[in-house]
Write a structure and sequence with these properties.
Layout lengths: L1 E3 L2 E3 L31 E6 L10 H9 L2 E6 L5 H13 L4 E6 L7 H4 L2 H25 L5 E5 L9 H11 L5 E5 L4 H9 L11 E4 L3 H6 L4 E5 L13 E6 L7 E6 H19 L4 E6 L7
Parallel strand pairs: 3-6, 3-7, 4-5, 4-6, 8-9
Antiparallel strand pairs: 1-2, 9-12, 10-11, 10-12
Bound molecules: S-adenosylmethionine.
């Protein structure tokens, strides 16, 4: 709530509130935001990890006030698309769902083995996604739109970049905003009941692809996203806090000295995949005098 000009206004962040009709839209701090130009609005909504209770109240308000939700579908039976549909059915059953088929990404070793090659492939993929979203917005021109983003849009998610590309293409125009969600990184810490760093220490966040590089740089407290099997070879003295399919019924957690738990992590990962038909995992690795032997 914001006190402005003598009147109390309810201003959930980035979401049109009851006081917005005909008036200026306000950010939560009461500062006129980038959403004041009128016209169509697109809101990227961080949805957490699939559980209906992960959505913030402002995320739910955004779903309920929108006319259309763009849901990316990677393939037939995509479990994450199904999870988004379930969230919409739960929180905003009247919201129209428009499926946007995700363009194929070039995953060939020849194209992605170097960092430059990988970045080029990802850039092409983002442009193809921007085209697909532009088409969906043109075909569904009425009312505000939402895009449901897994976890938090700030971590290893290209939605923000794709929206920037859609606008840069110039065929459609809209105001846009981002609502944060619970990230896998936060749920990992909560489930293990840990702080992601020791007192006053930094935490480095990276991908499995760049883990070895981070360790060579001297990072000693590293959160690793985008894993594909958790290769912990040579890290026996490190401590790991690992989690798979967090927030879902097939959730698995393992923690301990890598030398002691590496096999258990591999087994738990396979079990999560067997149970759900998909697996996503991440982990915190720490080398600390108090934890290593
Ligand atoms: C494309 S990134 C999206 C991250 C997301 N934006 C977030 O804030 O958590 C996908 C990676 O996030 C992690 N991840 C996402 N959901 C997860 C879950 N339910 N359990 C464990 N890790 C998850 C995995 O490392 C996965 O490879």
């Amino acid at each position: 709530m914001t006190r402005l000009g003598g009147a109390w206004r309810l201003t959930p962040a980035g979401v049109p509130g009851p006081h917005d009709r005909g008036g200026r839209r306000l950010t939560p701090a009461g500062v006129p935001g980038p959403l004041d130009r009128g016209g169509r609005r697109l809101t990227l909504v961080g949805i957490g990890l699939g559980h209906p209770d992960h959505l913030t109240l402002e995320a739910v308000a955004a779903l309920r006030s929108a006319s259309v939700a763009l849901v990316t579908v990677k393939r037939a039976g995509d479990p994450l698309a199904a999870a988004r549909r379930e969230l919409i059915a739960h929180h905003a059953p009247d919201l129209q769902v428009v499926e946007v088929v995700d363009p194929e990404r070039d995953r060939s070793a020849a194209s992605t083995s170097t960092t430059a090659g990988y970045e080029g492939v990802v850039g092409d993929w983002h442009e193809a996604r921007a085209e697909a979203w532009e088409r969906a917005l043109v075909e569904h021109p009425d009312g505000d739109a939402v895009v449901l983003v897994w976890g938090d849009p700030a971590f290893y998610d290209s939605t923000v970049r794709v929206v920037e590309r859609v606008l840069a293409r110039g065929a459609v125009t809209f105001d846009w905003s981002v609502l944060p969600g619970i990230s896998a990184l936060q749920l990992l810490a909560a489930r293990h009941r840990i702080v992601l760093h020791e007192v006053g220490q930094p935490v480095h966040v990276t991908t499995e692809r760049r883990l070895r590089e981070a360790l060579e740089q001297g990072q000693r407290n590293v959160v690793v996203f985008l894993t594909s099997g958790t290769d912990l070879t040579g890290l026996g003295d490190w401590h790991v806090w690992w989690g798979a399919n967090l927030g879902s019924p097939s959730e698995r957690l393992v923690a301990g000295r890598v030398a002691d738990v590496a096999d258990e992590v591999a087994r738990a990962r396979a079990a999560a995949k067997d149970e759900a038909g998909w697996v996503m995992d991440l982990f915190l690795l720490r080398l600390s005098p108090s934890l290593s032997r």
